[in-house]
Amino acid sequence: MCTNLPHAPSAEEQVFAERRRRVVREAVAALPGRCPQLVAALAEDPPPSYRELSVRLGMPHGSIGPTRSRCLACLRTLLHAERHL
After folding, report:
1. Counting C-beta atoms within 10 Å of the first and last residue's C-beta, which end of the chain has fewer, N or C?
2. Is 80 helix (H, G, I), strand (E, B) or coil?
3. Is this prediction's pTM over 0.85?
């Protein structure tokens, strides 16, 4: 048996992973205001700098961090509610 092969996810794992991605996408889309754009930008690889976000989203540099915190708190609430449906 070859133990150096990468783990191939089972069909069940793939279905659950796709469902998680869908639930997160839907929750991000349901966020208020600029939150969907901010959260999506922060999920980029690599994430843009706050300076880039400021220009892209038309937000003052100093408000990005607090807005990010509020958006992520709201996202956690939405995802927590989804888990309990």
Report:
1. N
2. helix
3. no
Q: What is the pLDDT of residue 16?
A: 92
CB atoms within 10 A of CB 28: 20
Contact 67, 59 (CB under 8 A): yes
Enclosing H/E stretch for 14: helix 11-29
pLDDT of the chain, 85 residues: tens digit per residue: 556 777 888 899 999 999 999 999 999 999 999 999 999 999 999 999 999 999 999 999 999 999 999 999 999 999 998 776 5
Tokens linked to 75: 């996202």
Between CA 21 and CA 25 the distance in angstroms is 6
The whole-angstrom separation of Cα 68 and Cα 82 is 21
DSSP 59: -
The distance in angstroms from the start CA to the end CA of the chain is: 43
